[in-house]
Design brief:
Layout: H1 10-37, H2 43-70, H3 88-115, H4 119-145
The structure holds fe (ii) ion (2 copies).
Length: about 150
């Protein structure tokens, strides 16, 4: 993900934003599914924790779909596949991995937006990167305190 970007076309940016959009839809499905599957003594808290992320990921998805159409592209309607997890800890680990990969994608997208001179998009992506970083950090804190169940 650390490749230097020299020339970026609008088509490449649209393709990248569609990849981001597929992963925002993935995040929505992932959080809704994990909220339903959380189990045991931690269920009430985890259910609320996962459900709380859904409106923010939906807001990211709506932003991306709007931006893709503004650039003349066609927004994807397909979520990237969601990995099922068989324990609360496995779900939190899957969430952490997804958020880390999402941040890396947005950092790359921010570079592309900057190379294209779309500073509005740079600013919007920075705000989304802050949201995803908060998701990642909250998940890390939870993982420090949860057992193997
Ligand atoms: Fe998101
Ligand atoms: Fe997120």
């Amino acid at each position: 993900m650390e490749t230097e970007i020299k020339t970026v076309t609008r088509e490449q940016l649209i393709k990248g934003l569609n990849e981001d959009l597929a992963h925002e839809y993935q995040a929505i499905v992932m959080y809704a599914t994990y909220a339903a599957m959380a189990s045991g003594i931690h269920r009430p808290f985890l259910k609320e924790f996962f459900e709380r992320e859904i409106p923010e990921e939906l807001r990211h998805a709506q932003f991306l779909a709007n931006k893709i159409t503004a650039l003349g592209g066609l927004p994807t309607t397909k979520p990237a596949p969601v990995k099922l997890a068989d324990s609360n800890r496995a779900m939190l680990e899957a969430v952490l991995k997804a958020e880390e990969e999402t941040i890396a994608r947005y950092v790359q997208r921010r570079k592309q937006a900057e190379a294209l001179g779309d500073y509005g998009l740079v600013n919007d992506l920075e705000e989304i990167i802050s949201d995803e970083t908060r998701h990642k950090e909250e998940t890390e804190k939870l993982l420090r305190g949860i057992g193997e169940h």
